[in-house]
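Continuing from yesterday's entry. The apo prediction looked reasonable, so today I'm repeating it with zinc ion included to see how the binding region is handled. Same sequence as before; SMILES copied from the compound registry.
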Amino acid sequence: MKFQYLVGIASVFFLAGCTTMPRGDNADLIIHNGQVLTINTEMEVIDDGVVVVKDDTIIAVGGHELMQQYQAQKVIDAHDGIIMPGMVNAHNHLPMIAFRGLGEEGISNRLFAYFFPLEAQKLSRDLIYNATKLGAIELAQSGVTTYADMYYHMDEMAKATKEVGLRAVLGETVIKFPVVDAKTPYGGVEYGKKFVEEYKGDALITPAYAPHAIYTVSKEKLQEIHALSEQQDVPVLIHVGEFPNEEKRLEGETQAKTPIEYLSEIGVLDQRLVIAHGIHLTPNDQKLLKEADVGIAYNPMANAKGATGIAPAWEMYRADMRIGLGTDGPMSSNQVDLVKTLSYAANMQRLKYSDRTIMIPEQVIEMATLGGAKALHMEDQIGSLEVGKKADIAIFETQSANMMPNYNPYATLVYQANPSNIDTTIVNGKVIMENRVMQTVKLDDIRDNVDAFEADIAEFAKELAKKAIKSKSLMD
Ligand SMILES: [Zn+2]
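Holo prediction written out below.
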C-alpha cells in the first residue's frame, strides 16, 4: 500500500511538471506498419515503412527504426496496407456530379445540346457548393488529395473544398456566352480576377483561369488571360485536342494547322498552361508542348466513353513530359476517383500501340501521383513521399479479398483495387478520413441537399434529353 501511495504521489508531481515542460513529441503524426511507395526518383518501396509528419510537412520516410527516433500523439497503424502519395486528379468539373447519370440516352451533340442548356437552367451558387462537397467527399474516400477543376462560382467550390480539407487548383471558366456566374460573354475574366486575388497564397487552394477551349474563347481573350496569369502568377487550364479538327471552328485568320500550333502562334503556350485531353496531337504538337513545359491531363475513361479517341499518353510520358491522369467531369466518365482510371490508363495505351510491355503498373501509379503533380507544376510540393514535401498521403488496406494476394503493390493497385479499399486519407498533414470514417464533413450533413437537387433536376433533364437527341452534332 505504502509503495503504491508513493508512486501515486510521484505521478502527481511528474504530471504537474509535464504541464509546464515541453512534450517529448518531435512529430505530429506517424504512420507505420505498411508498405511505403515513395514515388521518389528511385521509385523506392519500403516494406514495414514509416512516414513521419510535422505540421503540414513530411519530415522523415524510412524503415521501422524511425519508430525509435520519433514520437507523436497521433500514430496510425496501416495494418500491412499500402502507404502512398495521395493521388492527383488533374482534370475535373466536380460540381457536375449533380448531373451524374443524366444524358445517357445516346446523344451525339452532348456538349452543346445537353450539357450547356442543363447548366444554363439548373446551376446556382447553392448547387455548386453542395455538389462540390459531395464530390470532394468522394475524392477523399478514394485517395485523391489534389484535384484540378474548371467550373463556375469558384469561390463556392473553394469554400466546400476547404471544408472537406482537400487541395485543389480551381480555374474560373471563361467562355463566349453568358453563364451562371457571368451575365455577359467572357464575364469569367472579371470573376476570375477577384477569385485569384481572394485565394492567392491559400494553403490548399491554387486559384486559376479556365478558358473553356479554343473554339469557345476568342484569340484576344486567350491573350488577355495569358497576360493576367503572368501578372498574377497563376495557372491556366484549358481543353485542347479533345475533338478532331478543333482549329476548323476558329473565327478569324490563322496560319496554324493544329490547336497547339494556334496557341503557340498567339503566344499563350507556356509553363502556366495545363491542357486537358490532348488526344489529337501531331508529333510537332508534342514537341511544342514539351518545349513550352505545358502540363497535360490524360482522361482515358472519359475519352473512351465519349468516343473521342486515345491520347498519345505513352509517347508523352516516355518523352518525360508533364503528364498526369484525370477523370474529366462526372458526366463524362461518371467517376471522380482515379482508382478505376488506373487500369484504363494502362490498357488504352496498350491497345493504341498494340504493345503489352508499356505502361506497367509502376508507371501508371507514378502518373497518378507525381505525374499529376508535374502536370499542375506542383511537384516541388506534392506527388511523392519525400522529406520536405507536403503530407498528402493515401493508405490502401490490403485485408479485403480483392486485395489478395499482394505480390506487387503497383499491380494490386492498378488491376485489383477499388476506391473503397482506401482506408485513410491525409491532406496537408491533416487526417481527412480514417478507417473509412470522414473526419471533416460527413455525407449525412449534405444528404438532404443532394436529395433536393436531384428532385429538382430530374424532370427537366428528361425533357431536355428528348430535344437533344434530335439535334445534329457539331462534331459530325
Ligand atoms: Zn473537361
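Comparison notes:
- Residues 1-22 have pLDDT under 50 and may be disordered.
- The two ends are 91 Å apart (CA to CA).
Will overlay with the apo model tomorrow.
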